[in-house]
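Researcher: Batch entry, complex prediction.
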Amino acid sequence: WHARQAVNAAATLAHCESWMERLGWLANFDRVADGTTSPDRPGWPFSDSEVYKLLEALAWESARTGDPEAETAIKRLTARVGRAQDPDGYLNTCFGHRGRPPRYSDLEGGHELYNIGHLLQAAVARLRTSGEDELVRIARRAADHVCRTFGPDGLPKICGHPEIEVGLAEFGRALGEDRYIEQARLFLDRRGHGTLGDIPLGRAYFQDDIPIRQADVWRGHAVRALYLAAAAVDVAVERGDDELLRAVERQWERSVARRTYITGGMGSRHQDEGFGEDWELPPDRAYCETCAGVASIMVSWRLYLATGDVRYTDLIERTLYNVIAASPAADGRAFFYANPLHQRAPGRPSDPDEVSPRAESGQRAAWFDVSCCPTNVARTLASLGGYLATTGDDGLQIHQYAPCDIDARLPDGRRVAVAVETRYPDGGTVRVRITADEPAPWSLALRVPAWADGATLDEDGRARPVTPGLVTIRRVFRAGEVITLELPMEPRFTWPDPRIDAVRGCVAVERGPEVLCAESHDLPRPDALDALVIDPRTPPRADSGGARVRGRVPAHRDRPWPYGPAVAPAEDGEWFDVPLRPYHSWARRGPSGMRVWLPVSGP
Amino acid sequence: WHARQAVNAAATLAHCESWMERLGWLANFDRVADGTTSPDRPGWPFSDSEVYKLLEALAWESARTGDPEAETAIKRLTARVGRAQDPDGYLNTCFGHRGRPPRYSDLEGGHELYNIGHLLQAAVARLRTSGEDELVRIARRAADHVCRTFGPDGLPKICGHPEIEVGLAEFGRALGEDRYIEQARLFLDRRGHGTLGDIPLGRAYFQDDIPIRQADVWRGHAVRALYLAAAAVDVAVERGDDELLRAVERQWERSVARRTYITGGMGSRHQDEGFGEDWELPPDRAYCETCAGVASIMVSWRLYLATGDVRYTDLIERTLYNVIAASPAADGRAFFYANPLHQRAPGRPSDPDEVSPRAESGQRAAWFDVSCCPTNVARTLASLGGYLATTGDDGLQIHQYAPCDIDARLPDGRRVAVAVETRYPDGGTVRVRITADEPAPWSLALRVPAWADGATLDEDGRARPVTPGLVTIRRVFRAGEVITLELPMEPRFTWPDPRIDAVRGCVAVERGPEVLCAESHDLPRPDALDALVIDPRTPPRADSGGARVRGRVPAHRDRPWPYGPAVAPAEDGEWFDVPLRPYHSWARRGPSGMRVWLPVSGP
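Model: Structure tokens for the complex:
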């Protein structure tokens, strides 16, 4: 992850700013400031939010490394944004100014409040890392405007795309101002009653079909559903609202049990970028938007903090390695928007100098017409450190394993300081070295992932088996001591629930937290991926970060009509070793066919 | 089919006219005539075509039964359409008049030429059944305007939705006027060179990515691809253009072998209403638009007439029974737009008094926001008689089996007259009774469907086995003689090509030309359809127009995460008889879950 963070800092942040400059999304702010808005405005109504997400990424990055360029960029962008704010706090480049539609004239599709939600999240990143600055003051004026306009006595409306809720809740928490949290709660409870107009995709698209407290499962547009759920956890925690917390937990449970891909990806449908029905998980038409991965991590993180249940941090790990890590190209200048689990025909290479109109090209693209994912990846990578560990009243919990130094004080003053050394997930050894003496005992907890059957923990040369969950050691630790967690990294077969129709008769291979895949580059014929079957009786063998399985490619002949009486299973094709690689690395060698789920050869 | 034609005549035609009146789609013509057009105009740009498709249906219906009401409706509608025609022949209610965008200002999305294509097909129906009338004269002026505007020296453009091509080619053939056919050829050959602007879905969406002579498979929007192919066959036949004919045959072959559902349905994706990649045939997200079924029949019929190959009439039969027949409700006042092969959650009943914004509701709807399917079904049912049989130089070929009387003269004057008596497909006996003496020998050919292994033909009490294809008897026939074709109607298992990922490990059951399905109404629990498995070693048994198979419903318990190590296959659940019914009858007992492809129980 460190290498990915470095590429994010060195390439992605500037890449995003330069594209937004080039496309006029930044100049949109200048035009408002200069009073030169007109019916011609480049970008979608939500392009403002990209600037705010970049600001958030820059804020985390500035705090992570102290990079002065990030700080300069923050000031530069903040100044341009600030000039566009109206005296009453309203801030939007698409609505509410000369030649543009009036304020709040299209709440279903206009994204005005959504944009402000992202502004608030950017301001929270500043508050958390450097304190109140101009960006925070802009955000405060915008939040106050939202509260005045949509408060209990104001417009009883909501935004088509949830995000203002999580922004307000986080902002209120960071500032200790309850009225922002109350406004978030108000927005949450207004939704689900047909508050917005109906649309061809139905009100489930923006979760205005069922009140969040009553819903049992996520549905509709995945990013919307998940941003809303994240806000609900924030509000539930701030308010001690157990009913609301339980509702989100219940939705998480069923959605994870029945509507989530093995990669952690969410969203089965292209048409509405949405969740499908239970068990509807087609690998080829998986949408699994990168942003839905970001949003899923937001929800699970909040649920972990609220409950301490490791199932949430397990899912975060899965999503980090198999959705977030898949998106950016090695150079940090191209991104997957959709993350299918099966690519039939290799995509065409995307032009690094062109905006891709298509989210599902099968290749990473430099920028998209709807370009929400690059900045979402950027802010997630820049803030990744925050997801690695937590402290509680009695100690330290380590959730994600990456080389890092942690040095914290517990509420009562005890010092908990460790260094994590690991090549995970290339290797399964995680060494936690105590880096400070602390005379009082404290608890060190390490997450053993759900898949890690056979893990061991070694203290002072005494190894013992540990089972999935948080394994906790409570005692006095001395500087220099090393606790070693050994996670089993042998590749393994993983089978789907028999009700997932689209992958019946298939098996996947996982290694540690990584899902593996077969790529056409590694197969003998271009169409071999269509006919490949593997032998499920020969376990996968480890192979340089991936695995090999025993497979063959029967030579099917096309019948004029592909349905008919049973034919004997094709038994031809030589058995050979099929190399599998981490899913997140797919298409890095150029456009390719790819599949995660591998059909197994007959009985 | 006779009952369906009667319902079509008695209910559907008036139903369509009344909805178009109610929604203002007919008044749009009056507004043009009265000069009262404005930016407010109800309906999509292609709503004019619905009026023309209704006119076509009325024309076939009037000829079929001589119904005076149909004739009155034609005159009434023709008068309103005619008043809206500009002096130069231009005819459109969306473009080209006060308060509306200029003529041909949005060829990608405006459907102006598409609309005229349907006007021309309506006029052809009149020409074929009653001769030149006011509708034909309107059509001629419109066609002349198109030829002047888009001819060799005119605008070198095409329409985003193919249809003008098939309209012009048919119109030219019916009138014997070559210039219309030449204009159709010009449109055909202009397409495929990036003649239209690019769109987010890509130029394949409207087949402007590859010239039709070079393409190997259908791709993009299914109805567009198929209307274009129909036109290409017409032009190829009129011009003796073998290259073009071979190209369409080649595209048909691969598309039928790799991109067509067992129902004959075409179109695997909702997002673009389009064909997917080879082998991408998800049953749950099958789009299989009813209109694509109509268009597929148009293509196959033309290919049969051009080549005499029964594979085309086989596909027509399949599509008629499993797409067209599925669409209308029993009362002819509601229709399926999409025809999925697996419905997970029962749809909600649609309001017979409301326009459905959603094509894929899982229930038939009275009318749609985009309402292309009801009129397309209406014109197909009204003209169905034309698909039953053909004559050639030496005799009569019968392709589809329905009770009917056929009385025709061959080019040399021989009289071929038969009556077909059958309850097909409820029963498999087709009796062809000769109804006129003819002293000279002639050929009677009967299609034995591809699935009909074990069919027999009985002449004068002597039965003999016949194999799929056209079975031909050439001799002197006397009035009163009966030739009996016995088709085997035992239900049968049908297996998919192993490369169709989405239905791996499943089997379907067919009976005669009908695909069967399981419906939640017939199962013990609402979620039984998710877990149902059937025993593939027990052949299906016939059961009152459907079948029964041996199946059971294991009680799967949800795991928190639906992927993991192999678990022993669930062996619980009592075996019971699962009733299967014809797919075309699904959801006629109210909203239901449904599936065509049935998972088979373990090894």
